[in-house]
Specification:
Helix content is 43%, strand content 17%. It is an alpha+beta fold and 148 residues long. It is built from 6 helices and 5 strands, in the order H-E-H-E-E-H-H-H-E-E-H. The protein has helices spanning 8-13, 24-31, 54-64, 73-76, 90-100, 120-143, and strands at 17-19, 38-42, 48-53, 104-108, 114-119. It has a single domain, classed as CBS-domain (Roll), CATH 3.10.580.10. Helix 5 crosses helix 6 (120-143). The two termini are 28 Å apart. Strands 1-2-3 form a 3-stranded mixed β-sheet. A two-stranded antiparallel ribbon has the order 4-5.
């Protein structure tokens, strides 16, 4: 079984963190980068308290109009529908992501601090790689490769 910590390097590359006081504009600038699908909002102690995605920004702009420009990250963030820990299996994470159609989720440590953002694509690729590796091992076993 593959754990979340096995894909932590790529997850750390897409981690973006803002304070509650950061502006909607700050969040939008980060989300404009296609490699950063989610912004993790943290309190003054660095504890994750919410997330902002592109769809959150669009909804706020659509409903509040020009007034939205005065909103801060704390006003537009949402509680993450899924967060995961480095010791969880990718199968567990995939099951929740797939059932709720979530493209990404923050990875949090034991204290609630953001460690990265896992993307469904990374989970799917890692799970497929694991299946392919097991298939090769099984084929080699059946064919007697490496066994004497």
């Amino acid at each position: 079984m593959i754990l979340v910590k096995n894909i932590l390097d790529s997850a750390r590359k897409r981690l973006a963190v803002l304070s509650r006081e950061a502006s909607l504009f700050d969040a939008a600038q980060i989300l404009a980068n296609r490699d950063t699908p989610l912004v993790v909002v943290c309190d003054s102690d660095g504890i994750a308290v919410g997330v902002i995605s592109s769809s959150h920004v669009i909804k706020v702009l659509a409903t509040a109009g020009v007034d939205a420009l005065g909103f801060n990250a704390g006003a537009i963030m949402r509680k993450p529908e899924l967060s995961c820990h480095v010791d969880e299996t990718l199968q567990q994470v995939w099951a929740v992501m797939n059932s709720q159609t979530l493209p990404c989720a923050p990875i949090l440590d034991d204290d609630g601090r953001a460690q990265g953002v896992v993307h469904a694509r990374d989970v799917a690729i890692a799970l497929l790689d694991e299946v392919n590796y097991e298939e090769v091992l099984l084929r080699d076993y059946v064919m007697g490769v490496g066994y004497q």
